[in-house]
Amino acid sequence: xxxxxxxxxxxxxxxxxxxxxxxxxxxxxxxxxxxxxxxxxxxxxxxxxxxxxxxxxxxxxxxxxxxxxxxxxxxxxxxxxxxxxxxxxxxxxxxxxxxxxxxxxxxxxxxxxxxxxxxxxxxxxxxxxxxxxxxxxxxxxxxxxxxxxxxxxxxxxxxxxxxxxxxxxxxxxxxxxxxxxxxxxxxxxxxxxxxxxxxxxxxxxxxxxxxxxxxxxxxxxxxxxxxxxxxxxxxxxxxxxxxxxxxxxxxxxxxxxxxxxxxxxxxxxxxxxxxxxxxxxxxxxxxxxxxxxxxxxxxxxxxxxxxxxxxxxxxxxxxxxxxxxxxxxxxxxxxxxxxxxxxxxxxxxxxxxxxxxxxxxxxxxxxxxxxxxxxxxxxxxxxxxxxxxxxxxxxxxxxxxxxxxxxxxxxxxxxxxxxxxxxxxxxxxxxxxxxxxxxxxxxxxxxxxxxxxxxxxxxxx
Length: 461
What we know:
- Helices cover 77% and strands 0% of the residues.
- By secondary structure, it is mainly α.
- The chain has 3 domains: 1-176, MFS general substrate transporter like domains (Growth Hormone, Chain: A), CATH 1.20.1250.20; 185-240; 245-461, Growth Hormone, Chain: A (Up-down Bundle).
- The protein starts with a helix and ends with a helix.
- The mean pLDDT is 83.
């Protein structure tokens, strides 16, 4: 529950400020579009520093790193709330990103090391549900706080949560060290950081209407080169900053491959839905945020039956069948229009929340189902890095898909129409559907020890 709370705090912080950007821009005296710097600085910092979370935990101990990360994140939240200029705010967001990069991966690592295989499903379910909830309730909560108070309280909310989390960490988390003498892979850290930053920033630029294409091309070239170099380095290094050996485990490799495409698809939805409701359908920010709560309701409803479903059918059938349903539910959003009854909209969003919750939890649990304890540190760091990358890429894919819709209908972003979002959701749904292909290669008994499917089948026999 402690790690789940920090996961919620980090993901909420990444989404809640979206509706507050106009008010923040007025406070800083800048154009609202310039406020994207605060979001981008945070996401890029996460992508850069997450890979070293495993090394830090092994070197300094789980409690030391986890507690320090919570303290840094909380202190940076106070700095964000008290800044008066955009550069100072961006700097505070970078510091906050450093804390977040260490906080969630190390906390999850502590849970993975302490949890037996047969309890992994329940533990992962508890940890991961905030990752689904925060992006959904972030916009309406941010809209409410911004409307009836000040945007600064968005960051002050982290203070009591951070203090409670720090006290619980000191009380309940052991300061376990796996390899205190492990050397720091500086070359791997630089190469991975350059690859993540350049590729994510290039994707973010492509989603803009005034994308500087020469710069995008240069960033992609640098990112690809750094990515290839980092892959070769990590495979050859004796003590790499991110251990890739877990990719030899079939279930982990599939969850990182096809699973990443699914996460990209569902990460695009929280970006597109508020825009569709506000810009395409003419709703205000608060009403739009309330509608997205239907996704949240679906997420929570599925949590009640996730474990029984996994025990009854096993990972492979659930991931394939539910993966198709989740992709189709995203594509179904393309059928929504301003004239669509709100009850129908709520039903579609609720169904999407059900399927994506089941898929999200199953993928995150399968990731570590067969990973040996000795490889948990590297697997956790790699998983967290890819998770953060897919969230950033998902938003960029949503923006790019919307631009494709605008281009197909022959107008620009200054006159976005509801049909543009229809094209965007079809593209996002297709991305999710492609991710299912990789899941077909899973063995029939994949993760049976964790899901309990083998025991269920034997008991019926």
